[in-house]
Amino acid sequence: MPELPEVEVVRRGLAPHLVGRTVAAVEVLHPRPVRRQPGGPADFAARLVGRTFGEPARRGKYLWFPLDSGEAVLAHLGMSGQFRVDAPGAPDQAHVRVRLAFADEGPEVRFCDQRMFGGLLVSEADDGVPPEIAHIAPDPFEEAYDADAVVRALRRRRTGVKRALLDQTLVSGIGNIYADESLWLARMHYAQATDVLTAPRARDLLEAVRTIMGRALDQGGTSFDTLYVDVNGESGYFDRSLNAYGQEDRPCPRCGTPIRREAFMNRSSFRCPRCQRQPRNRH
Fold first, then answer.
1. The domain containing residue 65 runs over which residues?
2. Who has greater pLDDT, 6 or 258?
3. Pick from 102, 133, 164: which residue ends a domain?
4. Which of 30, 38, 134, 277 stands 20 to 30 A from 46 (CA)?
């Protein structure tokens, strides 16, 4: 699933193709991506036609596109969602589900989704965070993010540190890839108990999160397959810079010890057994 860097790359790519443009027509080619729209596909289209987009915004893994009506289109990419920009009349990419055409007759914006876990919704948001995601914590790149408050909240938890990082109500935007990479950079085991972390170590970890995701942003995000591309169909290159995630049996870039893969919450965690030693009190 795309994490914060991948979603931010999409936001940046969409901005010049949305800001100030007025929607002329909306085609919903499959109802599932707008399944959360109370009035269904017809209501989704009616709320968009004639509306002009403002600057796209993001929190964690969610995007929203403000409209001049005060509403906003809330978007989540799910496992395989993509926004693509193409000339009117250009052949559809595979799995196009929603198409937006504009009054200026310029490039269309198309939402593609192979697995259809993603979705679009016209939210009642009034120039702020859509209410559907108001419970999600600010991410590390937002002005609203308060690192000291997150440190305090993290240390109040009684869980393993990776579980805490994946909790979107604590800090948003972090998924399995960047949790593993951040823990590697901070030299911390995924099961390290949060309630015994010192404040400096908690700050080190959160700074590692910002560092890792900043590097990923600079490289266009992480692409393991064609299900994550930017609006021009280009893949990200951060997968070539991963130190731990997906690197099972390869030497740790720091000490040379083979990276180990271990089961974690119905998925996998990757760590260096020398740099990220197992804590005594394991959650």
1. 4-133
2. 258
3. 133
4. 134
Residues annotated as catalytic (active site), given as ranges: 2-3, 61, 267
Residues in the chain: 283
| Reported confidence tier of residue 237, pLDDT bands at 50, 70, 90 | very low
Averaged pLDDT score across all residues of the chain? 91
Decide: 120 and 71 in contact? Cβ < 8 Å: no
Q: How many other C-beta atoms are found inside a 10 Å radius of the C-beta of residue 42?
A: 13
Instruction: Assess if residue 276 is contained within a domain.
Output: no
What does the alpha-carbon distance between residue 185 and residue 203 come to, in Å, rounded to a whole number?
13
Angle between helices 147-156 and 199-218 (to 10 degrees): 120
Residue 31 has pLDDT above 70, yes or no: yes
How many separate domains does the chain show?
2
Instruction: State the Cα–Cα distance between residues 249 and 56, nearest whole angstrom.
Output: 41
CATH number for 9: 3.20.190.10
Given a contact cutoff of 8 angstroms between Cβ atoms, the answer to whether 132 and 122 are in contact is: no
- Spell out the residues 6+ positions from residue 278 whose beta carbon is closer than 8 angstroms to its own: 189, 191
- Structural tokens at position 254: 């720091």
Domain membership flag for residue 140: no
Determine the straight-line distance between the first and last CA of the chain, rounded to whole angstroms.
25
Dist. CA 174–CA 209, nearest whole Å? 8
**Tokens 């870039």 identify what position?**
253
Helix (H) or strand (E) holding 75, with range, is strand 72-76
- Burial-class residue 164 by CB neighbours within 10 Å (0-12, 13-18, 19+): buried
What pLDDT score does 2 carry?
A: 79
Percent with pLDDT over 90 in the chain: 78
State the maximum Cα–Cα separation within the chain, in Å, rounded to a whole number. 63
User: Which two structure tokens, joined as six digits, stand for 65?
Assistant: 């596109």
